[in-house]
């Protein structure tokens, strides 16, 4: 797919205008590679995370959740290979001093910003280094974790000892990770502080391929069924050996047609017994598994499905962005799947200066909110303006309380208008059935 810079600009601007995503530290001119999520962005992010947690943890019996500390003993990162090997090749322009990731440049000699000559590539470690405590020496060094995976590996034994799971089983985690990207860019696509959702799924070596294929299917199912992303924009791509991470023997990235082109959305790696083996050796703690039936002890191999929350959010936003013509005006709407939408329904009184309409509408709003928390109240401007506002944040249903609700047309008493975001069609729904009506629509 070609890049669509115009679309990216529209999304960035909508995100700021409507409170999805703001630039980090904006009042100080920003901080490159950081973004802050506003109320609607948080809601969207939590929906994505909850759908993920439901599919990969709650709906299963074999996956355990953890939430490990971001700061870890520096030995973890030496053993995992990140201190020595988590590098990107960096080049600097000799004229303007701008820095680039060499593997992202088409012309490796010439600066894409000023045309100056680029220097030689050198390896740049992407971990943020910090000091723990008041003493500043080598023993106090720590790092902000560059992946959530190691927090899982160091808890492997805890899960074995407390839950006694049988192989195969997995451990899942959602959390922050930090990478000192040489050139953060493309809005929330490449950032320095990110959020990952990862599973380490422990298997017998002989069965790795079966589980790998299964999780590739699960990843696609999550994108298509849970997030409602367009199938034709999703592309699994084999990662050639020279591009794989140092721990991986086989990787498939799932790429997506973003407005910036086809790029990596998430990954799947066969990490072998690399990590458990390395931590056993470095820590002196036995991280093997004893199979009671086969009476054998071995270090399990691992399949890792890994997801970046920000990239998923950008995929959902860009896939949902739509424009059409209504009453001679361009309408912008986000056609989110209702289960993903940050606001499920908005409730309005037809007029805000009619106390009897407002009182009825407040009651409808409060009753609905008890069953479905993501409901919004809106009484600003006229109904047409409210529809535009709700369309722009992707609210699937707008519910209006009018004089017919109060009984002006007797057979319409205690019914409300429900307007569909995508078609603009309106339906009259009985108030007593409103909650189950909306819930049914959200469930799809
Ligand atoms: P890339 O090649 O784009 O730098 P990667 O191959 O280094 O990514 P992984 O190490 O596989 O990425 O990380 C797993 C997932 O975490 C990625 O698929 C992506 O969704 C997310 N991710 C990684 N780095 C970033 C980043 N700098 N900003 C946003 N998301 C990221």
Account of the 3D structure:
By secondary structure, this protein is of the alpha+beta class. The chain folds into 2 domains: 244 residues, Bira Bifunctional Protein, Domain 2 (BirA Bifunctional Protein, domain 2); 101 residues, Rossmann fold. The chain contains 13 helices and 24 strands. A 7-stranded mixed β-sheet has the order 3-10-11-17-14-13-12. The chain has a 5-stranded mixed β-sheet with strand order 21-20-22-23-24, sandwiched between helices. It has a 3-stranded antiparallel β-sheet with strand order 4-9-8. It is globular. The mean pLDDT is 95. The site of adenosine-5'-triphosphate has 13 residues, from β11, β14, β17 and α9.
| Rg over CA atoms | 26 Å
CATH class of the largest domain: Alpha Beta
Structural class: alpha+beta
- The number of E-state strands comes to 24
Q: What proportion of the residues is helical, as a percent range? A: 25-40%
- The stretches of 5 or more residues where confidence is low (pLDDT under 50) are none
- C-alpha end-to-end distance: 29 Å
Q: Which architecture name of the largest domain does CATH use?
A: 2-Layer Sandwich
| Separate helix tally | 13
Mean pLDDT: 95
Shape: globular
SSE inventory with pairings:
Blueprint: H1 5-17, E1 21-23, E2 35-37, H2 39-58, E3 63-65, E4 71-72, H3 74-79, H4 82-85, E5 87-92, E6 99-101, E7 122-125, E8 128-131, E9 141-144, H5 149-153, H6 156-163, E10 169-178, E11 193-203, H7 208-226, E12 234-238, E13 250-258, E14 261-272, H8 274-283, E15 289-291, E16 296-298, E17 301-308, H9 309-320, E18 321-326, E19 329-334, E20 345-349, H10 355-371, E21 375-377, H11 383-392, E22 397-401, H12 403-406, E23 415-420, E24 426-430, H13 434-443
Parallel strand pairs: 3-10, 20-21, 20-22
Antiparallel strand pairs: 1-2, 4-9, 5-6, 5-7, 8-9, 10-11, 11-17, 12-13, 13-14, 14-17, 15-16, 18-19, 22-23, 23-24
Helix pairs in contact: 2-9
The structure holds adenosine-5'-triphosphate (ATP).
